[in-house]
Amino acid sequence: MEDFLYFFSFQDASIAFVVLGITLLGIGSAFVGTFSFLDNKALLGDAISHAILPGICLGFMLAGEKNPFFIVGGAIASGGLATYLTSWLKDNTKLSEDSIIAVVLSVFFGIGIVFLTIIQKSGNPEMAGLNQFIFGNAIGIVERDLWIYGGLSIGIIGVLVFMLKEFQILVFNPDFGKALGLPMHHIRLVFNILIILAVVIGIQAIGVVLMAALLITPGAAARFWTDRLKTLLILAAVFAIISGIFGTYISYTLPQMPTGPWVVVILSFIALLSFLFAPKKGILFRFYHRKKYIDKTQRDHVLKSIYKAEELGKPALSLEELTHIYPHQKQAIKNSIKELEKEGQLFINQNLIKLTKPGKMEAKRIVRLHRLWELYLNEYMNIAPDHVHESAEKLEHLLTPELEALLETRLNFPRLDPHQETIPRDHDDI
Amino acid sequence: MMTFDQNAFLIIFTASLIAISCGLLGVFMMLRKMAMTGDAISHAVLPGIVIGFLVSGTQRGLEVIVGAGILGILATLMIDWLRKKARVQLDASIGITFTLLFAIGIILISAFAYRVDLDQECVLYGEIAYLPIDLWITDAGKSLGPRIMWLAILNLILVLSFITLFYKELKLTSFDEKFGVVIGIPASAINLGLMSMVSYTTVSSFEAVGAILVVALLVVPPATAFLWTRQLRQLIQLTLIIGIAVSLLGYYLAYLLDSSIAGMMVTVAGIIFFVSVGLTRYRSKIKFGTQNEAKAFSS
């Protein structure tokens, strides 16, 4: 608890620096990453984060020390080359995009390793700092880094917010942008530079491999909660902030624990919660809705079957007869019967199932919708009577009262469907 | 200076074995558009390696291989689950999966740092130059040669038998999964089999070439071969030739520049790839050039 208070009061300047740094670069990466996620290029960031290794090494070799300007410059150059090659190869070879990304990623990284071993063998004492650059060390963020990298992050966020419209067009409909006369090539160039910058900054906190998570995961998680771009960006930023702060907190209380991986684990956890529980798009929500729909169709089928038997002059059906009609759904049919009995739509008398008055109304409605739709397909779409049943089997559960009224007036309150069966109405009886 | 001694032979031989195993699997991965899934698996096996290490107490235990194999399959299933059940787009599913598992791996390493002699660097880079001194010594004290070479031989035998046994199934499901399912091939089982072969290959090679270089050997030679031919048999043959060439040239270039052998192998693979892109483009330009002319003429 003491730790908790000490940490979250941010009295300690070094804690404040680390938290501020990781929050800023988290937001920057989340913003850029959300756009490339929407652009279906989620893994481009992964390719870039591996591809900047040779640039970092070259910058280091040229400067002879861990000079941020040389290193960032080299990283941007090789990241830019990799991005360019990725799109060039896509346009000029028949390789699939994932193969291209994997080729670029691994070849650049391999070249980087060659440079790295050359530096290692040169025995430069600053080598340790370089390794920190590659594997990430959030705790190592000091004031000077914060000014450079925090400033760059704010720059990235600023450009993204300022050019939101342009990037929106770039991601959703570049052809439209071209038609409007926007310089789409330049906009893409700016966007690619932003990704590369975000990766170069982010890597120092989180490392080459995990960088992809900072880019992809916040946007992918936020996508489950909203369809609006602005809300999406804000949510992604919030997820990045939460995971950044708690990741730092964990490695503060447990000093042997690395920050970056914990940030990723927390981010992934948020993503998992979103996938499961988000309304509308979440797995549980979709599962529940599907189940509800299937239950309803099942109940509709039971009512319909009994009604049809009644039409043929058989006022009740036994459970065996009912399950015989739907031999693969015995248990589901039994459940539906129980449910319908509770709702008062049918009653069971000595193993015979009969419709109640409201049950019969409902059954008539379903059969009516089925037959109206069959007739509509037959008359208006010129579909042969023997081909209309399948579609009506689905639509009978879906047609709304408004559509029903529309069908009735269109077809002028018909009496018979294409199979010469009566279309039942509430006031007539059989 | 340029020597072909026993060490050089052992390294080139082992590297070729690894390159061949990776290339064989890589051809099918590429055809299934799963190149990045291979990348994901090679990172995702990390926690399995650490747990196997903890259980067996050594990096060489069977537990390490089993652990990594399980994690590789888990990663495949997780990617599939995210894509199909949660409806996350494929590339994002891959990104989320491998970063999460790799992060867990690093956390495990940090948590058990005093018991696990492993680090990210060794998993990512590997070092094949130490191969000749890392010998497999029997209890009787007899040396049987480099341990990793034996691992690579075993790996290649397994990969070869997997591919020859299931060649027809692999081929069919790679080109038309639905047709494969229709004629009764258990496509998902074949897929899982391929993925577990990839994870096994990653583990048995990561000490030598590192995770990212396993990816390079999985992806680059098949992609290069794909530039030249579309026929599966030729694709495989060309991939194998490129794999061996990469090992040979990579070793000597690394020797010349005093640099990482594995890194150099990938660099050479990259050079072969880009030269192939240039040559095949030149070739197709000539072809399409005349065709276009003929078309322009006729229309």
The profile of the biggest β sheet of chain A is: 3 strands, antiparallel
Largest sheet of chain B: 2 strands, antiparallel
Please give the CATH architecture of the largest domain in chain A: Orthogonal Bundle
CATH topology value of chain B = ABC transporter involved in vitamin B12 uptake, BtuC
- For this structure, the CATH topology of the largest domain in chain A is ABC transporter involved in vitamin B12 uptake, BtuC
Would you tell me the structural class of the helices and strands of chain B? mainly alpha
Q: Architecture of chain B, according to CATH?
A: Orthogonal Bundle
CATH class of the largest domain in chain A: Mainly Alpha
Overall SS class of chain A: mainly alpha
The termini of chain B sit apart by 63 Å
Can you count the beta strands of chain B? Answer: 2
Write out the strand line-up for the largest beta sheet of chain A, numbering strands in chain order. 1-3-2
Task: Give the percentage of residues in beta strands of chain A.
Answer: under 5%
Count of DSSP E strands of chain A? 3
- The ordered H/E elements of chain B are HHHHHHEEHHHHHHH
Organism (chain A): Algoriphagus limi
InterPro entries (chain A): ABC_BtuC-like (IPR037294), ABC_TroCD (IPR001626), Fe_dep_repressor (IPR001367), Fe_dep_repressor_sf (IPR036421), Iron_dep_repressor (IPR022689), WH-like_DNA-bd_sf (IPR036388)
Protein name (chain A): Metal ABC transporter permease
Membrane topology (chain A): Multi-pass membrane protein
